Q: What sequence folds into this?
């Protein structure tokens, strides 16, 4: 029974991240170290997700299970491609302003998609990881387990 429960838990986490299909009581047969190992395997790294989102159509968001921001980035990328194609096709028949409009608007749409793709992982990952810890029945991260990020800029004043 423990192996079946462990297999179902692994499959449900693999398919959709932290799912609520199984009750918390079903996690109890797994040892604390097994649940911690499963958490480490399935948690989302925001920096890797943001780096992958630099590619078109947000592969980082979709692979982490963040369908909302992945859809927004994909929509911006599709709009950018459509506007660039419009500018290229219409430039030959109507003159240079269609090219300027198409390239300018397409570039703005592409940059907007990159901004969404770079910022949303930092909001999605902590929430996903907290839900995953709760779903696995692990205690919340305390100060001993929490990673303390190093500041990007350090300064001090002396008088």
A:
């Amino acid at each position: 029974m423990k192996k079946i429960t462990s297999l179902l838990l692994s499959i449900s986490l693999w398919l959709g991240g932290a799912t609520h299909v199984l009750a918390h009581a079903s996690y109890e047969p797994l040892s604390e170290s097994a649940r911690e190992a499963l958490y480490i395997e399935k948690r989302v790294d925001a920096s890797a997700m943001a780096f992958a989102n630099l590619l078109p159509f947000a592969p980082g968001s979709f692979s982490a299970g963040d369908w909302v921001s992945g859809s927004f980035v994909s929509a911006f990328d599709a709009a950018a491609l459509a506007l660039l194609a419009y500018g290229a096709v219409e430039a030959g028949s109507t003159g240079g302003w269609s090219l300027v409009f198409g390239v300018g608007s397409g570039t703005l749409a592409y940059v907007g998609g990159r901004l969404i793709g770079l910022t949303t992982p930092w909001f999605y990952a902590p929430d996903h990881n907290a839900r995953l810890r709760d779903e696995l029945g692990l205690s919340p991260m305390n100060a001993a387990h929490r990673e303390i990020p190093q500041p990007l800029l350090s300064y001090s004043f002396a008088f």
User: Anything to note?
Assistant: DSSP finds seven helices and no strands in the chain. The helical segments are 2-16, 32-42, 46-52, 59-64, 67-94, 96-119, 121-136. Confidence is low (pLDDT under 50) at residues 14-25.
